[in-house]
Amino acid sequence: MRVEPAAHEVHVDLGARSYPVVIGAGLLAEVGPRLAAAGYRGRCALVTSERVGALYREPVAASLGQAGFAPVAVEIPDGEEHKNLAWLAERRSPLIALGGGVVGDLAGFAASTLLRGLPLVQVPTTLLAQVDAAIGGKTGINHALGKNLIGAFHQPRLVVIDVATLRTLPRREFVAGLAEVIKYGVIRDAELFATLEARLEALLGLEEAVLVPVVAACCRHKAAVVAADEREEGGERAVLNFGHTVGHALEVLTEYRRLLHGEAVAIGMVAAARVSRTL
Predict the structure, then answer these.
(1) Known catalytic residue at 255
(2) What local confidence, expressed as pLDDT, does residue 2 receive?
(3) Taken in order 56, 68, 102, 196, is the CA torsion positive or negative?
């Protein structure tokens, strides 16, 4: 299968660890060809969750098989409580993470540690993962003492974002993901913020002509921040934490059960904005 030009492509500039982020609709069929074009072949693990796997495992596995790979599917139960080492049972190369943030974090951590590092491909299927979690190399799993306490920086070799997968995302999760989209408008892009205000109904209606460029704009901002401060050592990456101080506190207080991450961040952004007005 020939790799078609993506509607949008963002380059994450990290020298030898640079990688492309391709954004469009109907891109799941390109996962295999793009991975093969990057020089990989042979066995690979397709890590996904039960819910996402039921929807998209077969088309992605077919794409990998047609490109000459021998994929092995590894499904984990849905939910943050399953983001732990008990599910790191398969050792294959490369690893393809198909799903939301939990799948991406778990597969990313597996890729960063197994055999001292395996190639990772992120195929995010939630809005929050598409505009944030899949880009930047942060991986982590939970510990009994807290969330994401065990982790590493491990950049993917490729990120494929198919916005068509958002059509099967529960509406509450999509709306929660919009909080991270709005965040980019507030911290870096007034034009994006204006677009969100003007085209909110189109976004909520998943109109691809609006959704694809909005997701691509968010990816460009995340890529720029990551390129400037990959490991959070220079301070530039801290801007991405807007809304997260209060948001994380709310998640802890509610034991990660009442609020989705985006919902907590949205409340945190409002709180931060109100505090800023008093300073």
Answers:
(1) no
(2) 47
(3) negative
